[in-house]
Description:
The protein has helices at residues 42-50, 208-219, and strands spanning 2-8, 24-37, 58-60, 64-69, 81-86, 91-106, 113-120, 123-126, 145-151, 164-172, 175-178, 190-193, 197-205, 222-233, 242-261, 264-273, 284-289. It is mainly beta. The strands form 2 sheets. It has a 15-stranded antiparallel beta sheet that branches. A two-stranded antiparallel ribbon has the order 11-12. The mean pLDDT is 94.
Amino acid sequence: MTKSIAHIRPDEDRGTFIKNYRSSLGIVEAAFPVDGGCSFEDLAWWFQMALKGGVVGVVRGVTAYDYVFTPSSTTDDVKSATFEWGDETQAFQMNYGMVESFEIDGSLNSNWKFTANVVGSDMATTTFTGAIGDRTVEEVSTYLSKLAIGPTGAVPSAYMTGRFIGFKISIKNAFTRKYFADGTSPALGGMGRGKREISTELTFEGNSASVVERGVWEAGTKRVARLTATGTAIAGSTGPIYKTVDIILPGVWDAYEINDRETNTIFVATLMSEYDVALAHDFSATVTNGLSTLV
């Protein structure tokens, strides 16, 4: 956790070389930058704060639950959370934590990883909340992920083989801290929000299909990408049903750069999200796991 306190110092001329003689406390800013591995269980929890809050799992196959996170276009409904951090010497707490930015990195040499920048109202000393049990989680593997790309207006299902190398998803919620002169301490008084921006960097092997897709970039044609990761079977589910993360990314190619990987040509392309009229969203993610609730 980080906390900064501005100091207000008047500009005075007292006939000396000393610049500052007095000060008063100003605006307080608190943040909690955090990173870690993505699991099928915890990713749904993070999506409540990064994409859409109040999502309820829909039961399927007795013990499997589908959580669908489609960001709202006009309602500010992302959730906030209280964060605790520290060690055996001292614990700290940040209230009203909201995910300002969230990034998922899927590189072939590791599982999915996330980086989140959480902003909150203040950071204060506390004691850890007791009796919180640990959970069993499963990491999302990049090797067990696959990608499909198709025309606008539909969710693609023809996953590519021998071509997809890795990805990076960036979600920016454009939060702005609000402060008010209410006769109290200068802590955070509210949170404003601008227009969100979501982009996805995809890395492809430089084969003929990737060259054809580069022509789509040159033409400025809208596309829909689908990123799907699969885990193990959910215990007790009929079928069975497997843990999955299914992300739908409508947009247009902003860049399509030529690069290399050892002896091979690769393409690094950036898909900037755009609203898809037929799909009625600019981004959507479904997480399927065995959790009956995210609380």
